[in-house]
Amino acid sequence: MVAATVGIPIEQAVNGVEGSIYMSSTSASDGSYNLTITFEVGTNLNTSVALVQNLVASANAQLPLAVQPQGVTVKKGLHRYP
Questions:
Q1: Which of 6, 25, 41, 68 is the most buried (most CB within 10 A)?
Q2: DSSP designation for 6
Q3: Is the pTM of this model over 0.85?
Q4: What is the rounded CA–CA span in Å between residue 26 and residue 2?
């Protein structure tokens, strides 16, 4: 249920954000939802985080009323692959 009510609006909002190459998401029965956006090598991640935060904020009104007061957290993570 969280994937449909929370995930879809957020994924639609951030789809195609500059420099992104793919997205993957997970949701759990405890109501948690995690979206990972992978960016091209060399992308300025500070700029990307700001873009994603703005896009997620634009989707806030489409989220369930129970989610809106809690908000959505956007974090930058750096993963290096061999």
A1: 6
A2: I
A3: yes
A4: 10
Q: Which residues pair with 24 in a beta bridge?
A: 36
Give me the residue label for tokens 């994603």: 52
Give the DSSP letter of residue 7.
I
Instruction: Give the E-state strand segments of the chain in sequence order.
Output: 20-27, 33-39
Give CA–CA dist 38/67, Å, rounded: 25
| R_g over Cα of the chain | 13
Give the Cα separation of 26 and 45 in Å (integer).
22
Per the listing, tokens 């930058």 go with: 76
C-alpha of 9 from chain center: 10
pLDDT in tens, 34-44: 999 999 999 99
- The position carrying tokens 């989220």 is 63
